[in-house]
Amino acid sequence: MFKFLRNKLLNKKWLNACLLLGIVLLVAVASCNPMFKNGAMDMTLASKFDSAIEDNNTYSAVVGRQGSCSTDNFPDSASVLDRINAYEKKWMSYIDVPVLSRQNRLFIEGTYAMTGLGSRRFFSVNYMQDMSEHINITFGEGLDTGKPVEGTYPVIINQQNADTYDLVVGETVSIDKLVDKDGKPVTFTVVGIFEPKDTSDIYWKETPADFDKMIFTDQASFDETVANYGVLTIYYATYNMLDYAYIDHTNASDIRYYLSAFSKADGNFIQNFSSILADYQDDATSIMIIIWVLELPILVLLLAFIYMVSSQILEMEDGEIAMLKSRGTSTKQILGIYFGESAILSLIAIVIGIPVGYLLCKLCASATSFLKFSFGDTHFYKLTWGMLLYSLIAAVIAILFITLPVLKYAKNSIVEQKSKLGKVNTKPIWEKAFLDVILVAVSIYLLYNYNKQKSDIALSILAGNKPDPLIFLNSSLFIFAVGLLILRLIKYLIKFIYFIGKKRWSPAVYASFLQITRTVKKQGFISVFLVMTIAMGMFNSNMARTINENNQERIEYNLGTDIVLSEQWKMGAYLDKDKKSHWYYEEPDFERYTENLSNSCKHLTRVIYDDNTTIKVGGSELPDSVLMGINTKEFGETAELKSGLNDEHWYNYLNSIATVSNGVIISSNLAKEYDLSVGDSITYARYSPMKTKEPVEIASPSGTICAIVDAWPGFNQYTYEKDNSGKVVEKERYLVVANYAYVVSAFGLTPYQIWGQLADGHDYQEVLDTVEKQGILLKSYQSVDQEVQNMLESPLVLITNGLFSLSFLVAVILCTVGFLIYWITSIKQRELLFGIYRAMGMSMKEINKMLINEQMFSSVLASLAGYGVGAAATALFVKLVAIVYLPESHNIAISIAVNPFDILKLTIVVVVMFIICFIVLRTILKKMNITQALKLGED
């Protein structure tokens, strides 16, 4: 039996090879789904942990506990640490993730102390396990080498406490409430001042900046203090920094559950990443939906291709099946033969398809744009057992698609089969039922309905809800439905052209039109393939380009320039004679930037940016508004703004306030809301940086409106927040731009940002390296290049670019192969007909002309229609689908991005496909035994 099946497969080896190709691609695309999905989810989770570290400036995967132990049961630090270890052992028995670092701090409750110079201060005595391995002593000695005053214990303090509380090395600190049995208070000597070896060391969950009013001693001194000075309670704070590389899609849900259970069972348990896991699980759902809806058109195309090829094989073997049926072979046995063939092909496809799927997944994961691959880091994407399961399911579906159509042929004997040959092709069901028109109407209705709900869709996505899959699928439905409609119209067009010229056509042209009209049903399949391939290629390329370019434009606009640096300023406070507190900032030397960054930055400027300003106008107060204090000349040289966003060039607005000391530029939404115009006055207030129950206003200067703008570098007027019901709502912000000197004179010197425009050939990393070499401590930085790169490497964008590219590549392969199959079998089947034409006196040149005419009115016409459908789909659907990726309202509205080079690449691919097909067909014609066909024709 196996030998029979093998010979049967080899009998039509090229068609079966094409069928195998379709099954291999089906298995490959299906098998890459779990790998791509898992990799994208793992990448999403890792990026959320990374972002949390940057946003919060602290390690983002910490579990721990803050509690206390009675000295009756836990008399020393070792016993407390044993208890801490017991907690850790219990947590880690459930959360099976390696611990990268631990920070255990034991302390005695803080109280007032007297310094050797007579100052009264508030301090707590602390012991931190393994602290000496992570610090540098900047002044004095360490705890293990420092020599305290006799009768005292050694302590070290951080530089901030030394400055704030006027402590120096050698000074003593006595704590009155901690006394020995003779009533003598415990005394400590400051033997050193420390700083962390590396501020990025994950050991520092609590950083030296958090060590306000803390002094640190060694373990022995801490235990002696507890034992000899009546300490009743030892407090502790323990933190375990987990290796979040081991938290992935397989255990994220379980870990989130355990964190919730620990928090409910233990009120002192602390962790800082359950919110990350919750956000991830919301995103994971969206990722799965997007992957499936973007893969679905590819899978449908592949199944259609398999059906087309298997149908072509069945048509060619129709007589063979009828012969078997007439000789007594049962329908079940005939089905068994084709089931065996398809099973053999499917098993081979699984062996080949899984490795191909792995490579396709890696290729998709490295896509930075449509058909553009970086081949960067794809370590998140790994082989998984789910690939085998998906491959088996795909293989079973392929077997059904190949085997079930056999039922149609297995019922006919030779007599019935011969009687069918003379029947004229009837209209397909979809054409009779006007399914194309119905599907186009459904697609347009869905589009209309979704366009009315754009704002609700955007808010739903911002709230973390999963996108509606139909938003994606509707574009594919439209392309498919219009493809069928175009096919109907092409059929009518060909009939019309044939009708008006049938009495004037040459024999070759007449014969070609006759062939087209008689085989329009067979040609329809490949024509729809051509329309869908080209239309989907155009739509996918334009969709990817729109997402990428709009994202990049928004990043550039939001930042305002190439790089923005924020240095850590030192803040001081003092009391005046009336006991009223005052604050001040110590400005770092700005000349360090202009001197050291002259090579990497063309221009630099200082910008005061405060998004907590209140604008007062018309008796109303508008909190959370944005104030920007700028030097107009420097700002104009450094900042960038896309043209066309304002009524005139933004330099004119800069010029308008340059000569008016208290002049301001305001946003158009503020002017519209309160009917303001140029020449009116507004008031704006800023607040004290010192933390108080109620904000303390620094000043409320007035400004004369000199210009009104729709857009401004670094200002996005839309923000989002949750209301009391938890629903995400859109909120508008307002802008005031004033002169830097006026803002400083009104509010005092406050921290500013340094905006820089990079010089040609230099990048942001050079700037950061230079800043680091100068010992400048940055509070934060932002770079257009880095944020654009992060955007292109974000899981959602990678998924979209990758699957759009994969969809197009697969469609081109299928279309090329399907195109070849159709025309090769068509020519083979018409060999006798060509002989008749030659016997009637038609030359080979005329036969070639006939084939070219067929190509023009089938393939070329369908290809041109594909471009039209792609353009229509782009115009109708791109902005709607882009909402999923860009849901936020913005000063820069979503615009459709079409790159002619993308269309050129698509056209080149299609032209190359036609050239390859033409060469193959030409070769077949040359090799065809036309002499024998000629004799048959004469007979």
From TrEMBL:
One family name in Pfam for this protein: FtsX
Keyword Cell membrane set for record: yes
InterPro entries per the UniProt record, alphabetical: ABC3_permease_C, Macrolide_Exporter_MacB
MF terms in GO: transmembrane transporter activity
UniProt keyword annotations, A-Z: Cell membrane, Membrane, Transmembrane, Transmembrane helix
Membrane topology: Multi-pass membrane protein
Transmembrane portions of the chain: 289-314, 335-360, 380-407, 428-450, 470-494, 803-824, 860-886, 906-925
GO cellular component, one term: plasma membrane
Compartments, record wording: Cell membrane
Domain of life: Bacteria
Domain ABC3 transporter permease C-terminal per the UniProt entry, residue ranges: 298-413, 808-928
Major subcellular location class: membrane
Family: Belongs to the ABC-4 integral membrane protein family.
PANTHER family: ABC TRANSPORTER PERMEASE YTRF, MEMBRANE COMPONENT OF TRANSPORTER-RELATED
Name recorded for this polypeptide: ABC transporter permease
Species assigned in the record: Coprococcus hominis (ex Liu et al. 2022)
